[in-house]
Amino acid sequence: MRLENKVALVTGAAAGIGLACAKSLAKEGAKVVMADVATERGEAAAEAVRGEGGEALFVTCDVGEKAEVDALVARSVEAFGKLDIAIANAGIVHACDFLELEEEDWDRVLRVNLKGVFLTGQAAARQMVDQGTGGTIINMSSVNGVMAIPTITPYVVSKGGVNQLTKVMALSLADKNIRVNAIGPGSIHTEVFESVANDPAKMEGILSRTPMGRVGDPSEIGSVAVFLASDDSSYMTGQTIYPDGGRLALNYTVPTKK
């Protein structure tokens, strides 16, 4: 197993991509600390990982609060003795017209999606430096860190920031044997995606700009996370990988299956 004896932290791990990443890491032998603000769902998610033979611990954490993030890292070390991998996945979306966007909604999204990634990465990196063993940090971005959808302004801006934060962190931490990369998923079939999946017109719009003709599964993001967390990517840092079904490469629309 590629991550045997490694300890990994995943934020936003109660469901969706975060849970998929936690499961994938655990299957490769990592001990996983799963964090989320949704305590009940998070506990159930950790139990699901344990039910599949993995070793997992859930910790309630608001990634926008520095004290909680610091406590999360400390709890991870208390439980498993060290920290080797950190995946800053927690994120939220707020949709509305640009002219109707309220300041508090802008602040709320940036607080979780960008500040939360910074706080998680900094706390994890400090622990890795103290250990003297290096480590790997993975930030969750999006294809919308490069493209733009006008109705989700703060989300788009936050993910563009994550891409640049990833580069800055990678350069700052390279001499400390800490690699920092990001994952920028395209359309992935999570619970958040359900409302789109049940609307044929919206689905056709998404598939028409996805050359592979389907949305991704969360487990496919988990596989990329394992790659970036393992020695298979040992010469990679400061990069964002886009598992998007070909979406970013497309400059037109493709026929959809009827």
TrEMBL record:
Belongs to the short-chain dehydrogenases/reductases (SDR) family. It is an enzyme of class 1 (oxidoreductase). Its EC number is 1.1.1.-. PROSITE patterns: ADH_SHORT, PROKAR_LIPOPROTEIN. One of its GO terms (molecular function) is oxidoreductase activity. The lineage of its organism: Bacteria, Pseudomonadati, Pseudomonadota, Alphaproteobacteria, Rhodospirillales. Residues 6-186 form the Ketoreductase domain. Coiled coil: none annotated. This is SDR family NAD(P)-dependent oxidoreductase.
